[in-house]
Amino acid sequence: MEKVALFATCLTDTLYPDTARAAVRLLERLGCSVDFPLGQTCCGQMHFNTGYRRHAVDLAGRFQQVFAGYDAVVAPSGSCAAMVRDVHPRLGAGTPRTFELSEFLVDVLGVTEVGAYFPHRVTYHPTCHSLRMLGVGEKPLALLRAVRGLDLVELPAATECCGFGGTFAIKNADTSTAMLADKMRHVLDTGAEVLTAGDNSCLMHIGGGLSRLRAGVRPVHLAEILASTEEEPWTPASR
Amino acid sequence: MTWLGSPKFPDAARAALADTQLRRNLRNATTTIRGRRAEAVDELPDWEELRRAGEAIKEQVLHHLDTYLEQLEAAVTRRGGTVHWARDAAEANAVVRDLVGDAEEVVKVKSMTTAEIGLNEALAAAGVHAVETDLAELIVQLGDDRPSHILVPAIHRNRAEIREIFRAAGLEAESDDPRVLAEAARAHLRRKFLSCDVAISGANFAVADTGSVVVLESEGNGRMCLTLPRRLITVMGIEKVVPTWQDLEVFLQLLPRSSTAERMNPYTSVWTGVTPGDGPQEFHLVLLDNGRTATLADPEGRQALRCIRCSACLNVCPVYERTGGRSYGSVYPGPIGAIITPQLVDDPRDEQAASLPFASSLCGACFEVCPVRIDIPEVLTHLRAEVVRARGRDAESVAMAAAAWVFASPRRYAAAQKLGSLARFLARDGRLSRLPGPGAAWTSSRDAPVPAREPFREWWRKNRG
């Protein structure tokens, strides 16, 4: 049995607790023993990417302390996992074995069929950090294809950034919005009911735009789809 | 380096985003070249090894730049050329102006470096007209415009616009058929090639051990420039040197596929000093620093000097695709410009240059395509840190420090979550459509998430803790 620590990420912890609960349910269903170290806060990505390195160094050090005792750390976020794995060492912090959720399922647990049931038409946005910093590749798609009832439709120009980029969305709001508009157009072109991704930050951005349009496409984190079963189906909640 | 009076990136971008014609021109052009580049690169099974080789050669050069430059100088001199050293734009322009002598008109092959130092303007002030001979560069020059792309300076123009520019400049084109437009430019340029005595070029590479200088171009106009006039003046950034011909071979594979998606470059001109009775009889090489040694001194930032100006990063950049090159306010646009320009300007209080490292969503597409593996996102965050340090205390730094203080303690963090959840009361129909303060920029185009009733950690403590 794998003993894993869930790193919920500050965004998911605060705004999308359903995703973290789903990750716990999913990992336990697959035989993991899951802990949530309550000392965790944030990986420091926002500070690092905005130019506040000293704060990022402190937060990376803190992350290291909190998660030092675990075999593996799993995060439902490609960008936070990439921050921990790729950037923390550059900031002088050692890094516990940290995985983005789909990597952990496929590479460590060795499963693609997780017993999920999700009878909806879904399109998948491969977020930039999952795609390019972590190189998760086809793993999330393999997981989605194995979900019973799920109709996976391809997203046009999928690998293009949605325009979130953390504080980029605030500092360059107009450019961010232009990128978002194209991403939303592609999502709507698919005719999917659900947009999924491995990062709640990108989903917050695209979902925020779709909500403003009253577009009716619902953003759902990959963990929530994979946790959904016939007995305990996914229900729309906090989003 | 930067165009005087250029607005900060977010402001320039806002204006560009409103230009729907520009956005359409750019989207068409970048989408096409992006696909073609991917195909050209996929043909080579050893592309990743080539990238690593390119990176390694450039790193080797940067670590021993003094040695290779001295080798180059000795070799050029041995072959009958003259080497001039220029610390900055003013020195380089003065050297070139002297070398031009009493010529009233000179022909130029497109050169980023001479654009960087504002050579055309400096020559114009001395009464010398510099004629751009690269077709796209000519379009920019005749339109009294600014280049917006490293490789295709007129990428923001479509053919109807080009015909108008030609007509206004007195070049007759009967239609906007690309063939007709090219013919009009050709007739115009032939007259210049045959009448000018002096040519000015940039350089893509210079080989240290033989003193050979290399220019890659697609039209052959560059080759006319490099071979017809009697006197040739080349202005080259000091980082363009490579040790040997064997090293050059790597870049002759990397550059064309990355920039024009071609297997081999159409015109690769190499010249070594002077050859009596053939080609230019006088050759001058101006080696330009202009902020490069300062960049070299920065261990994190110096990888930008590996750049071979292929423009692959521009063609994949989602920010560039929407805002165009001119929003960057510099001769070096796009992701590479966002890291080169601030380093060459080397003044973190220059607000326009300081806005450039933030002109990216850090999506990483630029790093993925870079043929010499410049980790552009890494340098962007490094330069952001420099900007923040130089700016000192302001509203943002106070907010960031407060956030770090909250994140430093799980207790404070949980308290902040509770406080944040009060935003629930601002929601209407389960949506937050207008946030105060910096959040207003977010809700200009997006609804904000309504904070959860119960954060995850609260749930865990109650149910599992």
Automatic annotation (TrEMBL), chain A:
> GO CC: one term?
cytosol
Q: Which Pfam families match?
A: CCG
Q: Which PANTHER family match?
A: LACTATE UTILIZATION PROTEIN A (PTHR30296:SF0), UNCHARACTERIZED PROTEIN YKGE (PTHR30296)
Q: Where is the Cysteine-rich domain?
A: 4-84, 122-206
Q: Name one GO molecular function term.
A: oxidoreductase activity
State the name under which the record lists this protein: L-lactate dehydrogenase complex protein LldE
Specify the species.
Answer: Saccharothrix australiensis
